[in-house]
Specification:
Elements (H helix, E strand, L loop, with lengths): L5 H12 L1 H7 L4 H18 L1 H4 L3 H19 L7 H12 L4 H10 L12 H19 L8 H21 L1 H6 L7 H6 L13 H29 L4 H4 L1 H14 L13 H14 L2
Helix pairs in contact: 1-2, 1-3, 3-6, 3-8, 5-7, 7-8, 8-9, 9-12, 9-14, 12-14, 14-15
Length: 281
Amino acid sequence: MTRETEPSHIAEEVRQYDYDRWLCSLFAPSDIREHLFAFLAFNIELSRIRETVSEPMLGDIRLQWWREAISGLERRSPKSHPVIEALDFTNRRRPIDFSLMQDMVDVRARDLDPTPISSIDELMAYADGTGGALHRLMMPLTGFESSEGMDAAGQAGRAFALSGIIRAIPFHFRHDLVLIPVEMMEEVGVTRNTVFQEEHRRSFFGIVEEMTKLAGLELQKAQKQARLAGPNVKPVSLINGITGLYLRRLKAASYDPAHSKVQVGRLAKIASLFVTNLSGR
């Protein structure tokens, strides 16, 4: 694969599977855009393992492959894989935090465990270890690596991940994955086996409402930190605009993540990003 063909290939993968972050990346300086795509493509590879394997053991094998691939990258001995080659190119521009990448792989082992998340704290740790870690991984590409910038990046990714977890509840259910904390289900007298039953719809929507409020609080923190960090953090904090849009749609849908109102069109997303870009949040 040549350097000329790789960017378009990676960008297309990101556009297809992570349209929201792809859209945000278009607002980034052109000289770092393809490097952002490399990290986003890496995250896509990890996030799709659960839905592309027939049993957890095969998922574990895939995760181990990525652990070894990251170690190879660190040794400057990359495996032959489009995403790995893109990451190798990025690493030659600016050193990658390989330990953070390994942590992201480890967190994804949670996707292969059918046991529900036990607590809100565990849910927050999962959101931080997936979306938060991804945005911290991308932050050095901006050339702005202050603690304020890293905090803003991680918080933006964490809030967006939480909104994604909520919207994906029906999808996760079809793949035997429950990311609703057990303690929230116990409060309303349901279990992972009964929470989606028709007679418990009101309780389920109440849980989603509480999860949406938690995501809203995380978004408020992200917006505040983005203002403090300044314009340099925008390539990894603009996602705040889309996060807010999703949370408002969840409220409009009476906290039914399967409702059509939760779906957001491209024009609405673009408009939200322009507003966020101008406001600095």
